[in-house]
């Protein structure tokens, strides 16, 4: 089997997965501060377990965003996800907020002053990726893994899958021939369910959502369609497993089809390049592929804390590029100022648009009228075509 013929798998987790509950709460905090003051700074972590939530971290923003308000936001986020279980209930869980004021040392390093532009909120490397495998220019395994869970969640919220619970995971393995996905070799869905239903019934509840998401003819054979392969899955969510912010970074990005720099997204305001530069790298890579300049595009950016401009900009089109990569790098940097301020301004990131990103992936989503998922726009395509 050649390197262009292989099987590749990616997984996703639903909004009710314990780690995703934490991501959602952390991003609700970010949205609350940005709604009150678009220049707020947040670095927030959340932990959740059986009927207990702890929010910690540092913020710089208006005093109107009180601990009591943040606790209520966390409670309502849990309610919207759908947790009303004995071991994790939105109204009965004990929620503690120990968020404090941002370190003055960090503030000194990242704030603009005099002739100094606003610096990056931390050092690090960030990756963006796009490919032609799906119309959304995402790797197919992670895209379909997300879509299966998103379809089930939408049905659950609409009352059409009321026997299923909020906690769920999926995994899709796709066969590639000559570098292109052609069908699923296996599909795994594990979903929390009501104790009144058995394995076979859960399987048939899940089946139509999988079939509706995968392209026609792509469904795996029955032997490799796994639904709750361990059997009963009644106890789930934070009651079944402790959750933490930032533990699903590969789920949040490209499902392992591209590198990840290491930094999580949720709980961070857009001055943190872990988040904003990863969005910018995806934005540029997607526009390169959408413009027909490559079938695959990987972009790496690196930053130093307190320094505005990236230390490096690396581009790799995996041999699919139709233009010179060095020239492409220069053109992209002309089209987008890759300083933290430049990214935030161009993509309009200082808005309360982050809670919606906390589940089903930060990439491959549709741009929204209020600025949500602005990094998924392909508005640089014409300029890129003219440049080449």
Number of distinct beta strands = 14
Our Rg estimate from Cα atoms comes to 21 Å
β-strand percent reads 15-25%
The largest sheet, given as strand count, sense and whether it forms a barrel, is: 5 strands, mixed
First-last Cα distance: 36 Å
Extract low-pLDDT stretches: none
Global morphology: flat
Average per-residue pLDDT, rounded, comes to 95
Helix content: 25-40%
Instruction: Summarize the helix and strand pattern as letters.
Output: EHEEHEEEEHEHEEHEEHHEEHHH
- Tally of individual helices: 10
Structural class: alpha+beta
Describe the structure in your own words.
The strands form 4 sheets. Strands 2, 3, 6, 7 and 12 form a 5-stranded mixed β-sheet that branches. The chain has a 4-stranded mixed β-sheet with strand order 1-9-10-11. The chain has a 3-stranded antiparallel β-sheet with strand order 8-13-14. The longest helix has 19 residues, at 18-36. The mean pLDDT is 95. It is built from 10 helices and 14 strands. With 388 residues, it is of the alpha+beta class. Helix 1 packs across helix 2, helix 4 packs across helix 5 (199-213) and helix 7 (273-290) packs across helix 9 (340-347). 49% of the residues are buried.
